[in-house]
Design brief:
By secondary structure, the protein is mostly helical. The protein has two domains: 42 residues, no CATH class; 98 residues. The protein is 72% helix and 5% strand. Strand 1 and strand 2 form a beta hairpin. It is elongated. 14% of the residues are buried.
């Protein structure tokens, strides 16, 4: 749910209707299993405490964005490799398209948990757009290669 963990089993979440509903369901499940859960609403004692918490939330999301950016770099390397060896096949295009869809879904999940606008959010969005453009360029080359093959066979 995107919580910041202060200690084992002690975490913070922004107060939203979705979080409230999910936490109440989790509390009910814990009680049904014989455990105990305590849900509390809290605020920082001062602005400095609030800033510490916001910094933690942003840092956790930035960690996820960093990992995402690394996967985007891997995607870019893979496409570059296909260009280098001139592997312009529909099968490869389908595989790369599947990988891009995974990146798109992953970024959407990170953004859903980015409650306070982490620093790397814009970089991640821009990098995904670059990956999308790169795949489009690769797709065009695949289509051209297959058109060339048809013309050569005619």
């Amino acid at each position: 749910m995107g919580a910041v963990y202060l200690q084992n089993s002690v975490c913070l979440l922004p107060k939203t209707d979705d979080h409230f509903r999910r936490l109440k369901m989790l509390e009910n499940e814990i009680h049904a299993l014989g455990g105990e859960a305590v849900l509390l609403e809290t605020i920082g004692l001062d602005a400095a405490q609030e800033d510490k918490i916001l910094t933690r939330f942003k840092a956790d999301r930035d960690d996820q964005y960093r990992e995402f950016l690394g996967r985007c770099a891997g995607f870019e390397v893979e496409i570059a490799k296909e260009f280098a060896i001139e592997k312009f096949t529909y099968a490869e295009l389908e595989e790369e398209d599947t990988d891009l869809k995974k990146l798109q879904i992953w970024l959407a999940k990170i953004k859903k948990l980015d409650f306070y606008g982490a620093d790397l959010a814009k970089d991640a969005t821009a990098r995904l757009q670059a990956c999308e453009a790169l795949l489009e360029t690769y797709a065009q080359r695949v289509f051209e290669a297959h058109d060339e093959n048809r013309e050569g066979a005619a």
